[in-house]
Amino acid sequence: MSAGSIGIVDDDPALLRALRRLLTVEGFAVRTFDSATQLLAALDAADLDCLVVDVTMPGLSGLELQEHLNARDGAPPIVFLTGDGNIPMTVRAIQAGAVNFLTKPVNDTDLIAAVQQGVDLAVRRKARHEKLGQARERLASLTPREFEVMTHVITGRPNKQIAAELGTGEQTIKVHRMRVMEKMGVDSVVELARLAALLKVKPAASR
Amino acid sequence: MVGVDQRRLTAMGGGPLDIAVAVQIDLPQLMQDIVQLLPQTREVFVVMGTAPLEQFWEQEIRREWPGHFPQLTFHWMSDRSLEETLKVLSHPPPHSAVFYGILNRDAAGVPHEGESGLLAVRQAAGAPLFGYSMEQLGQGVLGGRLISMRDSGMDAAGVALEILQGTAPESLKVQPRPPSPPTFDWRELNRWHIPESRLPLGSTVLYREPSLWQTHRGTVLAVLTVGAAQTALILMLLAARRQAREGHAAMSLATDASGVGFWRRETDSDEIQASPKWREIFGLPERGVIRVADVLQRIHPEDEPRVREAIEASAREGRRYEFEHRVVLPDGSTRWVASMGRADDQDSAQKLRTRGISMDISHRKGIESQMERQRSDMAHLSRVATLGELSGALAHELNQPLGSILANAQAARRMMDRERFDLTELREILEDIISEDRRAGKVIVRLKALLKRGEAVRQETNINTCVEDVLAVVRGDLASRGIQVARELEQPLREIHADCIQIQQVLLNLITNACDAMESSPADRRRLTVRTYGEDQGAHLEVIDRGAGISGNVDEVFRPFHTTKTKGLGLGLAICKTIIESHGGRLWAESNPEGGAIFHVTLPFGGSGS
What we know:
The complex is a heterodimer.
Chain A: E1 5-9, H1 13-25, E2 29-33, H2 36-46, E3 50-54, H3 62-70, E4 78-82, H4 87-95, E5 100-103, H5 108-141, H6 144-153, H7 159-166, H8 170-184, H9 189-198
Parallel strand pairs in A: 1-2, 1-3, 3-4, 4-5
Chain B: E1 2-5, H1 6-12, E2 21-23, H2 27-37, E3 43-47, H3 52-68, E4 73-76, H4 82-90, E5 96-100, H5 116-124, E6 129-130, E7 143-144, H6 149-164, E8 183-185, H7 186-191, E9 204-206, H8 212-215, H9 217-225, H10 228-258, E10 260-266, E11 271-274, H11 276-281, E12 290-291, H12 292-298, H13 304-317, E13 321-328, E14 334-344, E15 353-360, H14 362-382, H15 387-417, H16 423-450, E16 459-461, H17 463-480, E17 484-489, E18 496-498, H18 500-517, E19 527-534, E20 538-544, H19 572-582, E21 586-591, E22 597-604
Parallel strand pairs in B: 1-2, 3-4, 3-5, 5-6, 8-9, 17-19
Antiparallel strand pairs in B: 7-8, 10-11, 10-15, 11-12, 13-14, 14-15, 16-18, 19-20, 20-22, 21-22
């Protein structure tokens, strides 16, 4: 099992070979692309965890690629390489979400560390994404009544109050509450509230 | 009525009892003969009086001559007195001729008896004189198809006789008398150096003077009878020799005048006959025998084998040789000479002769090498830039190979750390390292060849001057490559604050690129246009070519080491861009909609701060 799936984008074939060797030795699965266009074409099918991109390339530049990727969902994080780094460019890249900006000739330790960082970030994102997906599904499995109860529960109000507000018995509320917790897979109100916030569920307003 | 031209008859009318013995004057033919004798004629002075008959004739001439002879300018002397006419005629413009018609009364009303007018004109005239009647011939007129007044007179007498003998006048038909066949005065022909070959067919030449033979026949005969054969032979030889020498001298004269030396040699002979100029060119003595060996000695040792070979080849194949070579003079200096010669089999004994010419071309060579030096200086200048200006562009180019070398080495080291000894892979790594190292080395070498610290001097400069200077330097080169240059330079143009030498480097680079782009273009597309004009902020310059154009991204051409040529560094445009940008301007390229490329340069005006 690989340490992560990496895509390297650079117009210099010799450098492409060298970087691939370096990362492969460290256990990464590497794919190389000689232009940003080539990468964009293969992106969806590739399932890459992290990208190593040269900033100055003919045609679509590295920074332009970043813009394209940001417009997409689930694009992998980028480590930028440059032979000619100037500060404004670096700042822009970082602000737009690059993991790091390294100057050539690149130091192997620095590169590997940055790539690892990128992979970790990707993994975390993926996990979060999955979790969110899961949570959405769970939310969708709630009945309308359960949903309504949830919006009150996350405000922190006691069951008695909720029952009064919804015009039903306290016991009914207790039962609904339990069901919600179960379905949403949480143990506490705090967790539920967090999940709800993630799912952008609006808490019920006080009356 | 006698001797009246038919025309006049018509004009005059006449009753049934009037009989006219008319003559026929062919005016165009008269002038045609004049032009045939003197083809160079451009101005014709027509001498005619003011009496009615004279005026009648002038009108006729005015009607006929200018129309038929548009190349001639006619001057009508009828409004001048004879005195004035003589003044004019004594200093006529070149290529003039005078036609003397009738001058019985001049503009001043002065009558002139008989042919006194003609004599006076003959005396004064500085141009050939022509007339219309046979009676004028012998009095200074050149001649032509003249009418004979005497013959008309004879006709008239005959008619009168008829009438007296009782023939009814109206029954007498008198044919108009045509002009006589062309007749000329030899003395006048000689005076104006008109060769008899120009005379019309069937001409008669009168008043010949007897030749030497005719006048001194006796003496000549006497000479001949005494040792006739010998004398004749000597005379013949002398004549032949004089001719040859004259011919040779003429040749020498012609060649000397043009700086060309001339030589000749019989094939069997070792000796060369050479003109003084040729001797001078080769640094050989003015007099004395010249042998082939002497000449070969003079030829520069480096050129000698080539020269010898060319001459031998030409002798073998009987064709002309021509080449440029150096000659080493006695004082040790060299000069460039162009020589041309060939074998020539015109000897009566069927022997082969060779001859040729040589010309000193040192001057031309000097200029050529001067121009070449100037050009290479400029080309060199175009590759110069300071280290600081280039660093950004170069960093990328060097960091690429360095980057791969480092990554490769590090990968290899990590492999060993993990005890992954894949020999194939390690070999590949080492090969890549080596080739990338070489790549970096090339960059350094090129860079070293280019870099030199230059002193940049910026001042108020007229960009048009920079353009003109560069165009002057490349003019010869462009001409030899068949490229037309069009300039569209706005005048006047506000000055820019720039280092003209650097701007010229850029220009030279752009122009050279444009010419290279048109290398394989057809003749009608080998056109370079340089345009300048002022804009709000600064001067705008365009270098336009109709060549192959820019394939791919137009900005890519400015990248360092971008080149589509098999030789050359590819750094030119990157440096140009740096130079222009450091002046506060911009350099960019676009595709020419008509094919080819347009390179734009903008530079801010002086005083606007840069």
